[in-house]
Description:
This protein has one domain: Decaprenyl diphosphate synthase-like (Undecaprenyl pyrophosphate synthetase, 3-Layer(aba) Sandwich), CATH 3.40.1180. Helices cover 45% and strands 15% of the residues. A 6-stranded parallel beta sheet has the order 3-4-2-1-5-6, with helices on both faces. It is globular and about 50 Å long.
Amino acid sequence: MHIAIIMDGNGRWAARRNLNRQAGHRAGARAADAIVRAAARRGVDTLTLYAFSSENWFRPQPEVEALFGLLRRYLITETDRCLGESIRLNVIGRRDRLNSTLRAQIEQSEQLTAACSRMHLRIAVDYSSRYSIMEAGRRLQTIPLSAPGDYLRHLAEVDHSDPATAEVDLLIRTAGEKRLSDFLLWECAYAELLFLDCLWPDFDETAFAQALEEYSRRQRRFGRIPAAQDAAERPGG
């Protein structure tokens, strides 16, 4: 099972408490750590967290720098925990616009956890799904594709990821917004979407369990009719 999460609402969480936005991002990082642990305990195969979109570059420079500093510290601490719990860590998205220190930390974290097999944790940084789709298409102009899976393999190559874990089953977005915001557009083609009102720092293991319960009640038909209806419509059914 692949769960993707748009972690929205850190700034609003901080504003409601008369704190600065950086405090909200720190609280969001703590929430992310808790959900990673919860997902691993519940047997989730892949968890993708939307940490920094390509549009986030337009935020005030001090906030951007604070976010990347927080991300680097998160990778350092998370790498040790991932090794202890056999969680493979992978950063998807562009890397050419990241500073060399952060790029080096990303590469080190990925190399150290490459053999871990309990869960695949993907963190989307400087990520734009439209950019990834267009870049994959540009690279493949002269290569014939026989199936969507062929494109998916090259799309994963653009994002420094693994095509075997790309297709999303459940996408969760917190903080009340109801849009994908350029996140995993191709991979979410048949994903179940769940939009929640709670702000990301308030999203805890109980909320995560409730999201999984809601997903379990959904019927994923992929364009087909339900199995019971299918049986009833067969001759003699």
